[in-house]
Amino acid sequence: MDTHQLNHPDTTERRDIMITHNRCKTLWRGAGALLPALALTVAACDTEILNPGPVEDQFLDSLLAHEAVVRGAQRDLSDALDQNAYWGAAMTYEINPAGSTGSFGIPTYIQDGFFKLDDTGHWNRTQRARFTAEDALRRIEFALSEIEAAPAFDSYEPAADAALTAGYANRLLGENFCEVTFDGAAPEAHTAALTRAEGFFTQAISIGGAAGEDDIVTAAYAGRASVRAYLATYGLATWADAAADAAMVTDNDFVYQAVYTTQDDDQKNYMSWAVGGEPYRAHTQWATFFDEYFTNTGDSRVEWAVGVCDDCPDPDNPVGDAAVTKFGGNVPFFPQQKYDWGDNINLSSGWEMRLIEAEAALNGPGGAAVAVPLMNQRRQDLGLSDILVGSDAAAYTALKQERQLELWLEARRMGDVRRWEDNNISGGISDITDGIYMDLDGDGDKEIDPALTTIGTNHRAYPIGEDERLTNESITSQRTCVGTS
Amino acid sequence: MRQIGMILRSAVGRAPTVFALAVGLALSAAPALAQTGTVEGRVTAAATGDPIAGAQVIMVGTNIGARTDADGRYVLLNVATGGQQVRAAAIGYAMMTVQFNVQAGIVNTADFQLNTSVLRLDEVVVTGTAGQARKREVGNTISSINLADVPDPPANLDQMLQARAAGMQVMQTSGMAGSGASIRLRGAVSVNQSNQPLIYIDGVRVRSEGYRRNRPPVGFRGRGGNVEASPLNDINPDDIERVEVIKGSAASTLYGTEASAGVIQIFTKKGRAGAARWSFETGQGFATERSFGTDENPFMNMKPCTEGTSCWDQWTQSKTVGLCSDEGLAIDIHCSWLRNGHRQKYAGSVGGGSDEFQYFVSGGWEDNDGVMLLDNEKKVATRANFSFDLVNNLRVDWNTSYTNNRIANTAAGNNAHGVTLNVFRAERNYFGDSDPNNLRQLLNQEITTEIDRLITGTTINYTPWTWFTNRFTIGYDLAQQENRNLRPFGFVRAPRGILSDEQIKYTTLTTDYAGSINFSLSDAISSTFSVGGQGAVSQLVRTTAYSQDFPGPSEPTVSGGSTFIAREDRERVVNAGFFFQNMFSLNDKLFVTGGLRVDGNSTFGKGLGLQLYPKAQVSYVISDEAFFPEGLGEMKLRGALGLSGRAPGTFDAIRQWDPIPYDGDPAFRPDNVGNDDIGPERTREIEVGVDWAFLNDRISTEFTWFEQKTTDALFDVSQVPSLGFLNAQAANVGAIRNRGIELNLNAAVIDQPDFGLDLGGNVYTNNSMVLSLGDAVPFDAGGDEGDAWVEEGFPVLAGVGILIRNPDVIDEPDTACTVDCNALGEFVFGPQEPTFVLGLNASLRLPKGITISARGEYQRGAYIEDQASGNALSRSVRWPTCANAHGILDGNPVPSGLNEAETTAFLNGVGMTAWERHACIPANHDFEIHWYKQDFFKLRDLTLRIPFGWAIPQLQQATLTITAQNYFRWINDNLRVFDPEMKSRNSLSDQNRSISEHIPPPAIITASVRVNF
After folding, report:
1. I need a labelling partner for B754 at 20 to 30 A (CA). Which of A101, A222, B69, B663 fits?
2. Are the C-beta atoms of residues B428 and B466 closer than 8 Å to each other?
3. Hey, are the CB atoms on B722 and A181 less than 8 Å from each other?
């Protein structure tokens, strides 16, 4: 399909919104001499209707619509991130199921630790986010070329915003999916999306810089640092370039976020909404790594609390809203406290940059001596005890956990686990702490259940969605990403 | 009839040959003045001599006519003198025409003794025809349901239509107050568009799609009663005289683009010349839920144990002592979530008039409690029908009805705030608690739907000459719906309250013209040429206001909340078209009809022109031939071929984006890819059949074979997600087929003056198949409400899932699909519409006019998905179908750490069947296994009718009727928990059938008294 043509119909055919026409010329000829029939033919042909609401495609080319076009792409990215973060959290034991398996809940097969090939929602949303951002960029460039005295594309703020969004959408795709496709083409390795993201971040830095949009530039450096770090794990980029980009984000408190609001259900932070307000006490921190970790450390990055449930049989010991498969019956309800319904989710942060610098150090000459202080910088900021390790391997183990804590519930964990295992980074994932923690030996402490960890038989990336598989003729087979990329 | 032909031929000799000129002349013609006389007489049944009330007597070729009174008498005034024909026709009797010389200044008498006609070949029908036509002229089957033949007072029109005609399935959808029925005529002709037939009332097109479900605009969309009301039920059954049903495109061609699912036309009662005739009726009764669930857990906890009563406990799988006590409950639930809902009805009507003016005025009020505790439906219905004979050749009918319907519902369905879901799931519900004292908090919701419906229409019949008739109708249907959904401040699931109020206006404006010109080509051959056109403008305006978080307890308005959301939707669709038709008649025995409908529609793509729908029909009353043995009775052979269509959706043609918010600012999101060439689905139907009455009309039968083929079928073609547009795009790519037979058989087994037994039945079969997918990949047309699979070679809208091939074997489930597998490797269970339907009826006539009648319906071949069971079992809910498995596992929990082989060995050891392993162990559970056969039989009604007018002086008629509707039933063992007549949320519009957390339709017991004077 010609994508350009798809998105830019002949602009000379502009007409009123939503007018539909019926061309009756041929039948007019045949209607001939019968006057009553002619009168009725007039009635039959006159079926033009103005139906308000949806907006015809060509109206998005207007300069006045460009900001809304880019915001649409950002909204799509927020939606995709929201859903990916939720199921991804269940797959990597960032949360455990406590309730409904349908609406707001975690499906039974996700509870059992695998994806199904007929899943399609996550793929679809992520692809829409990627497409609308890239389409916005194409549309803006095309529209500007058609309009006299239009602003220059190379310094046009909406273009920089669109490129930035396209970068993060591609990162979301690459980090979370087994394989990727672009615009109906054949599947490629998931790293292709990250390479594509790198290009869009570079474009955002260029256009944003020319437009004087420092926030966009900083967010683009942060995004590019993260994808270069990922690609460096596969040898497709350099750790030095990743660290250099990270270093461009000097403010540790910098965040670039996907936005959520309480104004509209569709824009709520799903992770939070699923545990409050509605009856869905859908997930819990009970029996996760963070259950005892938070109790023991008070690390505010992974805070949870005993839930509020006045109508539970025992309000002092609240349980999830419905029985779940993994734990058989009602589950203690310890909801996460990182997000409220309208809270944003980080796409990048200054503190993540420090961890990228630390990981780059572990992959370069600096080693643990450089990496550990970078990690401790954050821990000291939070009032936590320092990491005290000497070897690079131990430091890498600590780094894996710090990323688990820092990027908690941000749709990043599956990607991390996969890249470390794929490339056997410092022992692959043998040292990660993701899993279900129960008191298996009866000593009062909870231990990780060896059968229920990310190390086990979990799938570590979403498959290509069923819709894509059925409609994209270039796809003849796909990998399922069971324990591998 | 030969004489009539001669008269017509003579007229045509003066007629212009160009039709347009004829129209012009017609419009300017004025009735001639002449000397007149009066004709009067009496119409009686030839066999018994009893008077026939309501028979139509007309002067042939004029608009002079009247209906007989209760004594069978009529009077015709202002009849031109000279040789005239007067004709009498009554439903159930053969038409009779008498020729005689009308003299001025005297009363001319013409009495009629009509013979019965089971086939009713001279009965006039109008649905699907160009103007009026006698049944003998029509090549397609047409079902007429005369309310006079319906012994039981129907609760609503849905129920009245159940099991009345072969090929018409009227399926109830839940036991909730106000829930409508889905209607399918010869199955589904579309997988993308609605399969509800078009509805006309007295020639006026009215809304046929279900009313919007009452639910808030945001949040989970199940927050409500989860039922759809049917516009059909706004019509007071007492106002109906008859209903005509045409079931497919062979018959509905002249309705054009939107008629391929068939047409139902309702004719309301008209006044008759003569003294006012009053009728009053009152009915009292109750609705009661028949048992569902299993023997161990009847009613699925909806009738929990009362305190101190020993009964079955779902959780412990044992007899236990009930917890429920009325004491202390704020709402008197009597330890049961179900009740016998009181029903009451009061109705009256009066009709009468003169020869120039007739009237029929009616009013009625109903107050029906549902079986759910908050369910209620109150309905006020009024009607005024007026007929004016302004001059001899001009008649005007003006019909108007107004209905106010208020429906209150209990929160139910797949709804975590609902009663049924939480009660069914007991301890593992959203409270973690089955105590009714706790769950009763869910009754603190107000879910009310109010519908105001005004339908008004005027039909002008103008006959300037005997050979030229015109009918013009203009009508307007206005339905105003308010959905109000309140979870008040303090509600357990939304402590600060939520209120949604939705105002919806549906309008349909109809204009319709049909003109016919009759002429003779020879002594034997006559012709009727017709031309006409229709326009229909349908509009929907919906505004929704929503707010939440109120400051305190009070009766709120939306304005009182602290967070607001508003929505608005507007849709307008125009369909306009015209038709030509010519019918040739050979000796009034053989009729050959050809026609063409031409349509435009606002939903068509830019690249599409007008659409053509041709038709051809043959009807042959072979029994009128001299060679036909008299002993074989009356027989008509018929065949019809025709096309009609189904329009695409309002926005399907346009490539468009949705305006949406993001972080408080406007944004765009991809919506439709668009399709410039989109057009209607085109359904071509061929049907052939025979109508036959024999053994002195003791036995009558109608047989029809039909085949429908929908080409250019609108399929939702999935888009490639990586191209950004996620919504499937409707495109004319597919082809589907329905093929089957219809057989009606009625027999007067015993026919004595004071005693009789009539038996009857009808059979309908349908074999549907997807013939082609075109460019589409196999897809699910059921949306997120369930599966309705579309794939070449399989039934249309099939149920697909996982078949456990060894369900009762103590072993691992064998779920490998080896035969009847779809493209995804899932098992195709079969269609979701029945493949075989058997309707049975019997009527026993006793002395003094007492009758006992019964009507039943058996359906076979369809499959239904029990989503309620799937939802529960996936959540570790203790479910009655898994009682055995729960018992095993309670005593023998599966040890942890077993590998697959060890687990299998363990489960073999404890005796768990393959089905139980897949259904009852939550970790193994899959929703797709819950497909069940839908086969059932229901006794639709059992009625005792006792006339007692003889006991009360001054009354013309008085009847006591006692009816039980849907009281007795049989459901196949495969479907163990619920009822096959259940549906999910969008009960009328959904393509699939699935069971959600609802209660089955209740039985209704009523006793009513009707008096006429």
Report:
1. B69
2. no
3. yes
| Pairwise CA distance, residues B709 & B707, whole Å | 7
Chain B residues closer than 8 Å to A451 by CB: 896-897
Q: For residues A379 and A298, give the distance between their C-alpha atoms in angstroms, rounded to a whole number.
A: 11
CB contact (8 A) between residue A57 and residue B656: yes
Residues on chain B touching A69 (C-beta within 8 angstroms): 667-668
What is the amino acid identity at position A193?
A
DSSP for A309-340, written as a single string: -TTSSSTTS-B-SS--TTTSS--B---B-S--
Between residues 275 and 314 of chain A, which touch chain B (CB distance below 8 Å)? 277-280, 311-313
- Cβ(B39)–Cβ(B102) under 8 Å? yes
Please tell me the total number of residues recorded for chain A in this structure: 485
Tell me which residue of A266, A254, A288, A244 sits closest to A408, measured CA to CA.
A288
A236 touches chain B (CB under 8 A): no
pLDDT of the residue at B595: 96
- In a 3-state reduction of DSSP, which class is residue A44? helix
The nearest CA of chain A is from the CA of B669 a distance in Å of 5
Q: Which of B600, B718, B723 sits opposite A470 (nearest CB)?
A: B718
Q: Cβ–Cβ of A51/B571 closer than 8 Å?
A: yes
Smallest Cα distance from A181 to chain B, Å: 7
Residues of A in Cβ contact (< 8 Å) with B902: none
Amino acid at A299: D
- Asked whether residue B69 carries a pLDDT value surpassing 90, the answer given is no
Q: What is the 3-state secondary structure (H, E, C) of B117-132?
A: CCCCCCCEECCCCCCC
CB contact under 8 A, B718 and A467: yes
Task: Measure CB to CB from residue A47 to each of B576, B654, B724 and give the nearest one.
Answer: B576
Long-range contacts formed by A149-155: CB under 8 A, 24+ apart: A150/A63, A153/A207, A154/A206, A154/A207, A154/A210, A155/A207, A155/A210, A155/A211
pLDDT digits (tens, 9 = 90+) for A69-118: 999 999 999 999 999 999 999 989 999 988 877 767 787 777 777 777 66
How large is the C-alpha radius of gyration of chain A?
A: 26
Give the pLDDT of residue B949: 82
| Amino acid of residue B186 | R
Average of per-residue pLDDT values in chain A: 85
End-to-end Cα spacing for chain B: 39
CB–CB contact B606 A135 (8 Å): no
When mean pLDDT is compared over B57-61, B311-315, B755-759, the highest value belongs to B755-759
The pTM (predicted TM-score) of the whole model is 0.85
Q: How does residue B930 score in pLDDT terms, banded at 50, 70 and 90?
A: very high
